């Protein structure tokens, strides 16, 4: 299987190279040249499999010759061994026809672990084979950074630099990034918001001298390997509710559009998904774009769901590429316009997007109310991101199709917002209960590309 760029000007790559590269050299994002499908019989056969066995069945067609079956099974086993729940992604019922998929039992308590843990294993195996050394640079609104650091800490052939917006992540998120003591981990607190961090990382990838000089690799949610790993739990949860013999819908708390795009891939692979609902917080550019065709960033307003405080939603480019029937030229054009004031999607593409996605938004007060009400009605303590999903899902419930809402983080990752809504301060799981005693190590940086590049070069020289 070959991987192609959404902007049509970068070389086609194998799975291994697309994964190690992250962003394509033309600024685009990699996608498989064709999406494999599973027959109804093959999907039915997933019923009763372990999460790991399902992961192997779903991901195997995409990885080509990169790993043998035996190797790949071992990597999957290691990736999910550190999860705090035997089911990995357990499904609980919230109400009639409404289910919650708990994706927060991984080592850093957010769904990002599902992808980052397997990516970490795959990177390590590929690098050991080639003897190469790489520098991972990522931007985070909080959860990607902690998941990446957890996945790569202590590896001998990788340095990992994470840029996060100073003062705009929760204390648990920050501590998960700043307390690992391994010398290959570098947490950088940057002045600005997440979009600024993401923009500087993109600049580094577009500076080819720097990119090649430090062997830059990306693990942001644009990395195809991450999207692929997230396809798995759409299958495991839908099958447990009766797919392929029954349709299901999903609602996904959305920021960078990686998680919901994985749902779209699951649908294209043959999973009978009726609706995919994009749930946004008050930074609702995706909801506005799907409603009006206009995609015009107007600055991020910090919220109690910081991992969704995003206006430049990078994986949306993949959705646009599909909506424009895989024609790279208009996508490249829109992405150029985005550097100015934004863009408007053509009528044809908007119609295609609406065939695939519904959307809704949720204000700060509605988020808190949903946390309070869900606890009272079901006993489930939601994090603010998951609460946004639940609220928007409730507006899209249909009588005959079960709705699965993705719970993207553990409530203990956002204890202030949860306590304000319920009076309960959710405790961290025992395995990380000493997080607040551990020593922090962080470097403050300005929003200055050259200064950040110099710092990275100095650090990896040692
Ligand atoms: C990253 C994140 C999201 C948004 O996911 P995307 O793939 O960026 O759309 C939502 N909730 C939480 C808790 C997250 O960490």
Automatic annotation (TrEMBL):
GO terms for molecular function: pyridoxal phosphate binding; threonine synthase activity. One of its GO terms (biological process) is threonine biosynthetic process. Its EC number is 4.2.3.1. CDD domains: Thr-synth_2. It is an enzyme of class 4 (lyase). Keywords: Amino-acid biosynthesis, Lyase, Pyridoxal phosphate, Threonine biosynthesis. Residues 99-328 form the Tryptophan synthase beta chain-like PALP domain. Its cofactor is pyridoxal 5'-phosphate. Pathway: Amino-acid biosynthesis; L-threonine biosynthesis; L-threonine from L-aspartate: step 5/5. Pfam families: PALP, THR4_C, Thr_synth_N. It catalyses: O-phospho-L-homoserine + H2O = L-threonine + phosphate. Residues 2-80 form the Threonine synthase N-terminal domain. The modification N6-(pyridoxal phosphate)lysine is found at residue 112. InterPro entries: Ser/Thr_deHydtase_PyrdxlP-BS, Thr_synth_N, Thr_synth_N_sf, Thr_synthase-like, Threonine_Synthase, TrpB-like_PALP, TrpB-like_PALP_sf. Belongs to the threonine synthase family. This is Threonine synthase. It comes from Lentibacter algarum. The lineage of its organism: Bacteria, Pseudomonadati, Pseudomonadota, Alphaproteobacteria, Rhodobacterales.
């Amino acid at each position: 299987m070959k991987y192609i760029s959404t902007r049509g000007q970068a070389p086609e790559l194998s799975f291994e190279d697309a994964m190690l590269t992250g962003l394509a050299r033309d600024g685009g994002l990699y996608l498989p040249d064709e999406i494999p499908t599973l027959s109804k019989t093959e999907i039915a056969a997933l019923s009763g499999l372990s999460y790991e066995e399902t992961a192997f069945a779903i991901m195997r067609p995409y990885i080509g010759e990169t790993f043998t079956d035996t190797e790949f099974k071992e990597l999957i086993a290691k990736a999910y061994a550190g999860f705090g729940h035997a089911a990995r992604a357990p499904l609980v019922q919230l109400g009639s026809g409404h289910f919650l998929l708990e994706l927060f039992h991984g080592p850093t308590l957010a769904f990002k672990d599902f992808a980052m843990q397997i990516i970490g294993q795959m990177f390590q195996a590929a690098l050991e084979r080639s003897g190469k050394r790489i520098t991972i640079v990522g931007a985070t609104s909080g959860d990607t950074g902690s998941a990446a650091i957890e996945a790569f800490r202590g590896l001998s052939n990788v340095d990992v630099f994470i840029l996060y917006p100073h003062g705009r992540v929760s204390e648990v998120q920050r501590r998960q990034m700043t307390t690992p003591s391994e010398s290959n981990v570098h947490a950088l607190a940057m002045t600005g918001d997440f979009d600024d961090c993401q923009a500087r990382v993109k600049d580094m990838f577009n500076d080819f001298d720097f990119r090649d000089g430090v062997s830059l690799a990306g693990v942001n949610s644009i990395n195809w390997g991450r999207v692929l790993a997230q396809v798995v739990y759409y299958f495991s949860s839908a099958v447990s509710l009766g797919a392929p013999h029954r349709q299901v819908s999903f609602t996904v708390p959305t920021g960078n559009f990686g998680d919901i795009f994985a749902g779209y891939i699951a649908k294209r692979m043959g999973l009978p998904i009726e609706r995919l609902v994009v749930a946004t917080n008050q930074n609702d550019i995706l909801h506005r774009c799907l409603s009006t065709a206009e995609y015009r960033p107007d600055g991020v307003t910090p919220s109690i769901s910081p991992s969704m405080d995003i206006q430049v939603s990078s994986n949306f480019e993949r959705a646009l590429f599909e909506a424009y029937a895989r024609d790279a030229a208009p996508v490249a054009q829109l992405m150029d316009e985005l550097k100015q004031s934004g863009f408007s999607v053509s009528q044809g593409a908007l119609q295609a997007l609406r065939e695939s996605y519904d959307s809704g938004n949720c204000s700060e007060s509605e988020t808190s109310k949903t946390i309070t009400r869900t606890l009272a009605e079901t006993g489930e303590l939601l994090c603010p991101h998951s609460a946004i999903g639940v609220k928007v899902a409730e507006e899209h419930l249909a009588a005959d199709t079960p709705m699965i809402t993705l719970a993207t983080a553990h409530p203990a990752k956002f204890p202030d917002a949860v306590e304000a809504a319920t009076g309960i301060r959710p405790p961290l799981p025992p395995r990380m209960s000493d997080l607040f005693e551990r020593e922090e190590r962080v470097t403050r940086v300005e929003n200055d590309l050259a200064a950040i590049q110099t710092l990275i070069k100095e650090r990896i020289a040692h």
